[in-house]
Amino acid sequence: MGEPSEDAVTLDLLREARETVRNSPLGVINTPMIPWCQTTLPLNISCNIHIKLENMQRTGSFKIRGVANQFARRSKDGHFVTMSAGNYGKSFAYASKHYGSKGKVVMPETAPISRSILIQSFGVEVERVPTSSLMHVVNRCVQEDNMTFLHSYDDLDLIAGHASLGMEVLEVNPEPDVVVVCCGGGGLLAGVAAAIKLSGCDKTRIYGVEPEGACTMYKSFIEKKPVGMDTKSIASGLAPPFAGRLPYKLCQRYVEAIVLVSDEEIKAAVSALYRSGLVVEPSGCAAFAAIVNNKIPELEGKNIVCILSGGNIGKDELANFPDCQN
Length: 326
Description:
This protein is of the alpha/beta class. Helices cover 39% and strands 16% of the residues. It has helices spanning 11-22, 63-72, 87-99, 113-120, 134-145, 156-172, 187-198, 216-223, 245-254, 263-275, 286-292, 315-318, and strands spanning 33-35, 48-53, 79-83, 102-108, 125-129, 148-149, 178-182, 205-211, 257-261, 303-308. Strands 1-2-10-7-8-9 form a 6-stranded mixed sheet, sandwiched between helices. Strands 5-4-3-6 form a 4-stranded parallel sheet, sandwiched between helices. Strand 4, helix 4 (113-120) and strand 5 form a beta-alpha-beta unit. Helix 2 (63-72) crosses helix 6 (156-172), helix 6 packs across helix 7 (187-198) and helix 7 runs parallel beside helix 9 (245-254). The longest helix has 17 residues, at 156-172. It is globular and about 55 Å long. Keywords: Lyase, Pyridoxal phosphate. Its cofactor is pyridoxal 5'-phosphate.
């Protein structure tokens, strides 16, 4: 069986995944979407923005959506391996514990130790390796230990699960002009973009946001194929070593452009959100950073959705942000 093409992502597939996610025993939440004007957040553009609070999702990030759909479609007594800097690993571990399946997360050495400890607390094994060795170790687990690889962003079931977030956005805001989503490997961006475009919102402009030091999708758009790079960013969740193949194809089809934000802009965004009472990790606030730093064109007077994709930031990490002390 070949790898699925972007044509496999149909509205029927996404609607089916939406029901799977909605009814998942993992307790996925239909997260709130609030108007920016009902917060104390700064804004220097005259427009109508809604913020999707996926930082309040079960396990602290959107990743549980894709995981719910992946686990629903696989054998419950499997032995799974994945690679993750934290958020996918946490959702994967949560699901493994619920379903009683065995699991292992291969993590980059750069990921916060607190995240490894958390994942291990669900009874899942963790192996920390250099970022460049992630796939090598995953392949070893598949070949030598007969584990099944669950991909943390380049997987049809995962992307279809993430699309449920796009469907929820449209339930509140049926015709957004602009939707801004963070992008790492591209699974969330691809799922949200496919859900919105296949639902008939032809005029909606969808933007992905990546850190300058981890811009694999941005470079993939330029080179017209999925590429890898030596990634480095404070937003570790947006810094996988390569862009996903299926996410790239879907983003090419449905996404307007990829824009970049600096680590300094991401840091400032974490602090601004924290001061407004929203705990959002660096990877989760890239879309917000792009909007407040005027990286998205023609927002004036528009109806916009900004997705805050995750809130997993420990006290040890918050110490790096001067405005987030107590």
